[in-house]
Amino acid sequence: MPTIKDVAEKAGVTVTTVSRVLNNRGYISELTRKKVKLAMEELNYQPNEIARSLSRKRSMMLGMIIPTIAHPFFSEMANAIENYAFSFGYKLLICNSRLEQTKEKEYIDMLKSNRVDGVIMGSHTLEIEEYFNLKKPIITFDRKIADIPYVSSDNYQGGRLAAELLIKKGCTSIAHICGDLSLDLLSNKRTEGFIDTLRRHHIEPVILQLETDSFDRSSYSSIFNSLFDNYTKFDGIFASSDIVAMNIIKYASARNISIPKDLKLIGYDDIAFAELSNPALTTIKQPIEEMSKLAVELLDKQINGEIVANEHTLPVTLIERAST
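Below the sequence we write its predicted C-alpha cells.
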C-alpha cells in the first residue's frame, strides 16, 4: 500500500507539501497541487482519514442542524454551505430537526460523539445550555441564541422594502402572513419593519400568523381560507417566505382573484422557484450564497482559535417581478 512518502517522491516534493495539499492548508501553487494529485492518482493513494484526524486533533467535519432540507430555502442554503465547507477541506453532516426537541437533542449528541469541529445551527428548540454543552464552535444561521455568533439577512430592511413597494403600487388595504411571532426569531424583524413603515403612512395591516411549524404547508389552508373568506378587500399581501407566497397564488387563482390586477403580492427569500411561478413572484432576496460563505468562514476562524464578532447582518435586495 503506497504511503505519503511514496507520493512525495513521485511528485518530487516534500512530505510536508503533500500533507498541506491533503489538508488544504498553507499556500501551494496550482502546479504543485496538480503534481501531487496526479501522483496520488497514479499510485492509487488513499489517505487514512482516521489517522489524519488523530494527528491534527480535528475531524475536518462540520455539523449542520436545520428544520427541514425539503424546504427550498434550506436546501439551497445547505447546498451552498456544503460547497464552501468542502472548499475549506471540511465534510458536512446535515440533520433535519423538524423543530422537534427530541430530534434536535439527539442530533446534537450525535454531532458531539462524532467529534465534529463545529456546528452551524439553522434551528433551535432547546435550552441555551444544550448548545454550550457541545463545547464546539457554533454559528447560527438567521437565529440569535445568547452570545453565539450569527449570520443573518437584514430582516427589518426586507420588511421595509416590501411595505414601500406596496405603498408605491397604491395598496391601501394590506395583509401580512408570517410565522409565529411568539417565537424569538430574527425573522420577526421582517414583520417589525413592515408594520413600522406602513404605520408611518397611516396604514394598519392585518397580521395573520402561521402555526409554530411554519414549514408545514398542510397547515396553510385554514389561514388562507380565513384570509379570503373574511377579508375580501385586500389589495396587497406581504408573505414572510416565497413558499407561503406561492401558495397564496394558488388559493387566489381558485377564487378568481387576479394577481397583480386585484392583488399585489410580495414574498421573501428569492428561492430558485420564485421566478418560475405564475405570475413570477416579486420578492425580497436573501443573499444565500454570501451568507453561507460567511457562516463557513466564521466557523473556520473559531475552529482555528480566532475570536469573531457576534452579529453579521447582510443587506437584502428587492427583486420586482410580475406579482406586483
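Residues 21 and 33 are 6 Å apart (CA to CA).
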